[in-house]
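Retro notes
What went well: the complex prediction finally ran end to end.
Inputs used:
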Amino acid sequence: MNYEIVEIEQFSGSEAKVYSIIPEGEEITLYDRFIESHKNQYKGEIKQINIRLKQIGHYTGARENYFKPEGDHEFVRKYGNYVYALYDEEDSNLRLYCIRFSTVAIILGGGGFKDKSIVKWQESQELSEEVEKIMAYAASIIKQIDEEELYWSDNGSELLGNLKNYNNEDDE
Amino acid sequence: MKTTNKARKYKSPLIDELLEETTPIEMEQSKSKMQIAAKIEDLMTERGWSKSQFSGMVGKNPSEITKWLSGTQNFTIDILIEIALAFKVNITEIFTNKKEQVIYRGKIAVKSSGKAAEINLSTPYVYTSNEAGGSALTFQEDQIAYSSFYNTAK
């Protein structure tokens, strides 16, 4: 699983770093891909998500209450709570997934349409694919941290190290 | 030898385009909702109240409190008065921000000031302090990645 972790300039701030992932061979982040896929149909929802991410980076930090824990039992048992969905507005039909590291950093993934009748992500093929994808990235990033390829800056606010992870033949 | 690379800064034209369409009012509304949620969380933390304890005090279901704390709730004045009364604070305090310090395993990082201070500790905490010098410590619910490798002294 080869990818680059980049810092999103518009969202990152003094309270939290906001990152996303560019898979190898692609030009834009998973989050940009999410915007591209949904901006025509759900522009209002995406604008709200953008505003919330900017507030998190600049004013509030990534407080856990702003997010809903996601991921399957196996992932949580193995790694802990790292995969989250951003809480959406009551009338929102979009769900955004991310990897959250305490209040100080989030790594944005993708997401998708979430009908209000859908309770669990497993009930939607699109959401299932997105959660599976962000769990795979989370597992790989945690492995990098585990192996000290990635680590936190001295003040604990920033990811450093091998952020352009293009050397993995196999993560298993 | 470990690389000390920082993440490449990525400025998304797509995000710029949508942020440009966002009005200052929309921005301020969202900011206020999130900051009020943060304030309620901080007050609960200071008093050592769980969601269910607080929900009992304001006569709501815990799921309602979860929504309040999510930063998406459009609070009415009536609800804010109920919240202020439960905490025995003036309603204006609900709109007041406090500085927050996040204490990690082994170190403290002062997030709201330019220069980081460090204090040795054995467990992660969130540390809040108000302008009058009051403070509260609470257990942080999770750790940054694998805590055994999260040694800020690296």
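What we learned: Chain A touches chain B through 69 residues (CB under 8 Å).
What to try next: split runs per interface for comparison.
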